[in-house]
Write a structure and sequence with these properties.
By secondary structure, this protein is of the alpha+beta class. The chain is 40% helix and 15% strand.
């Protein structure tokens, strides 16, 4: 679509009956998946217009819209300590899908690496509060509900797709294969997951999280999904986040959860690569491949992290043969999971790689 902010103003006027747009205001952002900007009306109200640029983005935006009523209900019930985006109107776009218009949310984003120790605790409490929601919040909205086994299968599918399209370093593939074969890692209780824990989705006001947005990838799944981005903050900050998270949920994160958190942190690079391949973006592809090479070199240099032969740590369960699934095919689209497990397609945040840790339990 044409990416002028004034196109967004026209969409806002079409979406909200009686809205008289008199100007546009920053921020105006444009990514491969979305165009968004702020529109000012004649009554001094500020509206955000978010318009999808492709089918995958439109699907993610509709998911966030579908979930909003349930989250508002949870907010009113005192189960969420922050506000959420409140869709107010919609307008069709020429690319298909709908632009969403909503009042400008409270707060401003802050890069995670710039957060104070107390703010890191606040961030962890916010994530924990999402994980404490009932899974029915997700199922009522028609969003995905995955079992622990489903989560594992989706990762296998993602890896297969990426490796078929652009072969991954064998050292990393073997390392991740070991973790996926260790069935003791995949025995956990799924929770409501935000799905896109990135700094732009957490808006701050007076040192507290005022609004959480970006729920387009929310689902019931692995809590480690939301914890993995925090590893890049370093050991000291992650330990503070972990303590705050455990206190809020009244749980102890066991070694299996921490191992999956490490695994998902590393697999964020694979997701970044897959996004670059999907959008035919050579810069993202090169960036992801360089991160993969750097990670492989770092692991190769540490004998304790270098993967050995695969093994099964759960007595009585048959060994799996994930390696057999990584057979190069003629094209990425030829990959088939063999399961009806959707593969993620939304635009990820460029990963900030944490130091590699052990995936052993």
């Amino acid at each position: 679509m044409e990416t002028s902010p004034y196109i967004l103003a026209a969409l806002a006027a079409a979406a909200i009956e009686g809205l008289d747009a008199v100007g546009v205001r920053p921020p105006f952002t444009e990514t491969d998946d979305f165009v968004s900007g702020c529109v000012l009306d004649s009554r001094g109200r500020r509206w955000v217009v978010k318009s999808p640029r492709n089918v995958a983005a439109a699907t993610m935006l509709e998911a966030e819209v579908a979930l909003a009523p349930s989250l508002i209900e949870e907010l009113r019930g005192g189960n969420l300590p922050f506000d959420i985006v409140r869709p107010a109107g919609f307008a069709p776009t020429r690319e298909g899908g709908r632009a969403v218009v909503y009042p400008e949310p409270f707060g401003l984003p802050s890069a995670f690496e710039h957060l104070s120790k107390n703010s890191i605790r606040e961030l962890a409490r916010a994530i924990a509060s999402i994980h404490l929601l009932s899974p029915e919040v997700i199922s009522r909205a028609g969003l995905p509900v995955y079992s622990a086994s489903d989560c594992r299968k989706r990762l296998v599918a993602d890896l297969k797709e990426a490796h078929n399209a652009s072969p991954l370093p064998m050292l990393l593939l073997r390392r991740w294969e070991n973790a996926l074969e260790d069935l003791s890692l995949w025995d956990f209780s799924p929770v409501v997951v935000h799905g896109d824990v990135a700094s732009e989705n957490f808006l701050w006001r007076e040192k507290a999280i005022a609004t959480v947005c970006g729920f387009g990838e929310a689902h019931v799944g692995d809590p480690a999904t939301d914890l993995a981005p925090l590893l890049a903050l370093g050991d000291e900050f992650f330990d503070r986040a972990k303590e705050s998270y455990e206190n809020t949920r009244e749980v102890n994160l066991d070694r299996t959860t921490l191992a999956r958190t490490q695994l998902l942190s590393e697999l964020a690079i694979v997701r970044w690569l897959r996004f670059g391949l999907r959008t035919s973006n050579p810069e993202i592809i090169a960036d992801a491949r360089q991160m993969l090479e750097d990670l492989a070199s770092e692991i190769e240099a540490d004998p304790e992290l270098n993967p050995g032969p695969t093994w099964n740590t759960v007595p009585g369960l048959p060994d799996t043969d994930i390696a057999a699934e990584f057979v190069p095919e003629t094209s990425a689209t030829a990959a088939s999971t063999g399961e009806d497990i959707p593969v993620s397609v939304a635009e990820p945040t460029a990963p900030t790689q944490a130091s590699p840790g052990s995936l052993d339990v």
